[in-house]
Fold:
Amino acid sequence: MQASNDILPATGPAIILVEPQLGENIGMVARAMANFGLSELRLVNPRDGWPSEKARAAASRADHVIDAAVVYDDLASAVADLNFVFATTARARDNFKPVRGPVEAGRALRARQRSGQRTGILFGRERFGLYNDEVGLADEIVTFPVDPAFSSLNIAQAALLMSYEWMKSGLEDETKTNFSSPDMMPATKEQLHGLIAYLEGALEARGYFRPAAKKPKMVDNLRAVLTRAGFAEPELKVLRGIISSLDRFSPAMPRGDGSPGDDPRRLPAAARAAKATDKDQA
Structure:
């Protein structure tokens, strides 16, 4: 066994890979562990030896996990110092061990860790998982609710699922994420009604409400759309700015091309006719 004589306090369950075949898979397991705060990786007889540059490359900068990985000659040695071990498997086993799902298993591991116990999770070979006698070295089984017709998981996928459940079990709120949307003040009704009135006026000027008899219903629909969304104050400011820009400028009179009031298409029909007459007479 290539290991230090010093046993460090565990910050989470040890991830134990039994005879992993590919360095790339070991690296992806290390990456999954680092994503969710796990760092103790134990390897039992990795097929291609250790250390592995392929594993380091696949770990995507989870070097602290790769550098601290310990290699064991046999599984019994790899679990000898642990108080409780889960074995992952997708196959039904002829034994009397309790079987848990990943959510329940994550919470059980968290409770044992808080009581000072050292825990671990076994993952089997890429091709066929764990032997029965290896499962026998664990205390309980954890299995994933996968499609029975295609139940095989890559070890990195399985490690990611368990690492995620471990991290989630330690949150005060299991639905909480590390970042959220901006905390914005909801718009007041006065602000919302002001926007609706402004928009209604702009649409009226462009003859949107046709025929005139349908205007009340069209305004009701407009209000229903805008009041359902629950806008925040900054969002209303964005909408107001967009509508204002559309109201003040047109393709015929773009920004910077004179006063928007000079756009003849903004004038009532009578005023446009009078302006055209004045121009002809000039």
